[in-house]
């Protein structure tokens, strides 16, 4: 049953990613699918251009208050980021092909080690999508009748594009982490059967070389993944941070000015909607780094004092390899995805929120003095 659910989840996500234009273009030999993909991207580009025109029409409202200004900047930023993600899926097509080749090579090497682990993506991805869908239903209900956000309805497809990019990133990181877990388990089996005072066998040496080669391929997968999706992750991180700042600002201003409960629920649901995917992505990124650290600790248990110099040198080289080649997902080397960065992100949100509140009080005091 779980295997069928995994297959259905992968097919469902593949169709959604294709409709959102988040996958590379098909080869020229599949010209029908290529034309369909180009048509889908043209529709998305026309839609985003329409959103930018709407943002320009609202520009005269943006100068009235700080809240309107940050809302307009956020709306424009989301539109530009959506366009950038569509371009990234096309421009990084060669890098995406390299990533798929490396993943296939890694899978074959792990199968040589007897590792045939099953993916469990559905257990994480389906609840994540369900939370986002539930938050959108709550926002639709609160925005119906008495409008809280005038651009919520027209920008909802764009929000799904941005959030499904998060789902796509989480799926890729989970897949890489699964390979690192399989490698760690294989290394653990070798370490548990290791007798320090027995000379090494030829089979152990060959298995250690295969493990080292598989580790290098997995590291290359992490590097290629960061290179393929790095700019998009950087933009998503910046826009999500700004989204948190603006929604927290509107909630505080609503409480300060005695705003409606609808606005509080709407902004709270928006924060949860964007908070759950980025927290999930950072948590899985931190899990991959932790797997790499555990692999480095296990290698020290493979040393054989009675073994040959060749075997112990291979163990030492493998240990140095784990020190210099870490399983880290980075956004173009600007930052790595881990829980420490997530905590720093929330600290930065509080800092920027205080600055916005100061601007708000300065604006109100200026208005009162003019009156």
Q: How would you describe this structure to a colleague?
A:
The protein is built from 11 helices and no strands. It has 371 residues and is an all-alpha fold. Helix 8 (202-256) runs antiparallel to helix 9, helix 8 (202-256) packs parallel to helix 10 (309-324) and helix 8 runs parallel beside helix 11 (339-370). The mean pLDDT is 79.
Defining key terms:
single chain, 371 residues, mainly alpha, 11 helices, 81% helix, elongated
Indicate the percent of residues in helices: over 70%
What gross morphology would you assign? elongated
The counted number of beta strands is: 0
SSE string, helices as H and strands as E:
HHHHHHHHHHH
In short:
With 371 residues, the chain is mostly helical. Helix content is 81%, strand content 0%.
Summarize the helices and strands and which ones pair or pack:
Elements lengths: L1 H18 L11 H27 L1 H4 L3 H26 L1 H20 L9 H22 L8 H41 L9 H55 L4 H39 L9 H16 L14 H32 L1
Helix pairs in contact: 2-4, 4-7, 4-8, 5-7, 5-8, 6-7, 6-9, 7-8, 7-9, 8-9, 8-10, 8-11, 9-10
């Amino acid at each position: 049953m779980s295997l069928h659910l995994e297959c259905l989840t992968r097919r469902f996500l593949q169709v959604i990613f294709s409709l959102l234009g988040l996958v590379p273009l098909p080869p020229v030999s599949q010209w029908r699918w290529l034309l369909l993909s180009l048509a889908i991207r043209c529709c998305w580009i026309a839609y985003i251009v329409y959103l930018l025109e709407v943002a320009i029409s609202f520009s005269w409202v943006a100068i009235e208050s700080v809240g309107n200004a940050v809302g307009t900047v956020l709306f424009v930023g989301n539109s530009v980021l959506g366009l950038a993600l569509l371009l990234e899926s096309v421009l990084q097509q060669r890098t995406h092909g390299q990533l798929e080749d490396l993943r296939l090579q890694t899978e074959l090497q792990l199968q040589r080690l007897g590792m045939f682990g099953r993916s469990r993506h559905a257990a994480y991805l389906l609840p994540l999508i369900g939370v986002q869908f539930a938050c959108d239903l709550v926002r639709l209900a609160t925005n119906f009748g008495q409008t809280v956000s005038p651009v919520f309805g027209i920008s909802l497809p764009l929000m799904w594009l941005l959030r499904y990019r998060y789902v796509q990133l989480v799926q890729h990181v989970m897949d890489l982490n699964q390979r690192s877990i399989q490698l760690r388990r294989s290394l653990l089996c070798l370490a548990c059967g290791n007798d320090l005072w027995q000379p090494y066998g030829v089979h152990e040496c060959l298995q250690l070389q295969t493990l080292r080669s598989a580790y290098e391929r997995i590291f290359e997968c992490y590097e290629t993944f960061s290179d393929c999706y790095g700019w998009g992750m950087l933009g998503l991180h910046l826009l999500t941070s700004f989204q948190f700042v603006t929604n927290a600002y509107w909630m505080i201003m609503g409480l300060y000015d005695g705003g409606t409960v609808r606005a509080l629920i709407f902004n709270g649901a928006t924060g949860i909607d964007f908070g759950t995917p980025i927290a999930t992505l950072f948590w899985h990124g931190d899990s991959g780094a932790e797997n790499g650290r555990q692999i480095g600790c296990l290698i020290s248990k493979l040393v054989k004092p009675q073994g040959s110099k060749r075997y112990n040198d291979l163990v030492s080289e493998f240990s140095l390899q784990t020190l210099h080649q870490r399983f880290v997902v980075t956004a173009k080397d600007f930052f790595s995805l881990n829980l420490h960065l997530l905590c720093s992100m929330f600290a930065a949100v509080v800092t920027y929120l205080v600055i916005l509140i100061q601007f708000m009080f300065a604006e109100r005091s200026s208005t009162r003095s003019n009156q």
